[in-house]
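fwd from M.: "can u put these together and see what the complex looks like"

so here's what she sent:
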Amino acid sequence: MATGQTKQRIIQAAEHLFASHGFVRASLRQVTELAEVNLASVNYHFGSKENLIQEVFRRHLDGLNVEREKAFDELMAADPNPPLSDLLTAFIAPALRLSTDPVHGEYFVQIVTRGFVEYKDQFREFLSREYGDINRRFFAAIAHKLPHLPDQEVARRLDFTIGALTYSMGDFGLTKLADGTDREDYLRATIDSLVRFSEAGLTRTPT
Amino acid sequence: MATGQTKQRIIQAAEHLFASHGFVRASLRQVTELAEVNLASVNYHFGSKENLIQEVFRRHLDGLNVEREKAFDELMAADPNPPLSDLLTAFIAPALRLSTDPVHGEYFVQIVTRGFVEYKDQFREFLSREYGDINRRFFAAIAHKLPHLPDQEVARRLDFTIGALTYSMGDFGLTKLADGTDREDYLRATIDSLVRFSEAGLTRTPT
DNA sequence: GTCTATATCCTGATAGAC
DNA sequence: GTCTATCAGGATATAGAC
């Protein structure tokens, strides 16, 4: 194999196979075969399978994190006290957009979901450590828009929002992209619908 | 090993190990060791690992399905046109209650989540085939309470509800059961909060 | 940096005695 | 129904030539 491309080829193949078969099922033999590189090169470049898995996580989550920080900062720069719906859009849109990306979207969702399931607490710690900051900033800004609610209730309702978002990203649900529908139209409609749904849920007053 | 208990012991051990390590990682050797039965007995009683996995799925999902049908039927018997919040409670409560069950709750959630991730479409087909009926009845009843909404939008918002429910079941979120809080109180509060959140999201009018 | 060859271990499954 | 022993294959990881 030509020099210098090996590492990239491994990551690409790993991304594909981890997403479709899972971290456990996908073997280094399959990865190196698909990448058309030598089996031993994985250990040379990454040290172990575990490290390769971390690298694949990181690549995907870094991308999302950058987008979310950008969305948050741009929003706050334009208006330090933005309406709740704008905050929710900044929170929701980057994730949903990434998950429907025609190139990496499917991989992204599968890999993150598998991370949750296969590594559980370990993965949550990783997320909190590496990407927790932007989440806390969103939380504070959203809680500020709901001054009548105790923080605990804000957290609960935000969890519902994140759950709805995650489920939508996973394309697990009843709604499917019908043939002929433009992807961008569908995405905008989903973002819009989820923002309004969450806004109603977050601001609802006790009966 | 004393006769007659082997099959049950295997299922119990499998449930435990599949939940904590996943279907792929948990080996039959680990299962039989924990169950204190012979390795070969798995194949004698279940034929293959794959069949054992299906059996574990079925045990958990059958339980949920029975509870949901009971909740739906009881509600409809008392009032053929119940308020939306009651429909949502009947939809949400059995799942959330099962997922926080001190004995099987943790297993239940992990196993269902792993089913989604490790078997994806195959698992969805299984769910729809075996347990789709009660879902369709809930959907029809809920759509009936939202006559001004097209079915597609009802489906979308119900997906958000299911997402929020699933995420809550998985205990993935920010909110944690604080020490000293009564489990039943916490459960009721979560059910109540999610029902109201979803109701607000489902009934929200376009701005 | 890349390769071959291999060490070491674990997997699901089964044949056949009891 | 339960057991031992084993098969056949696949896994990660590495030593060492190039």
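replying to her w this: Residues 27-29, 39-40, 42-43, 48-49 of chain B lie near DNA strand C (CB under 10 Å from a C1').
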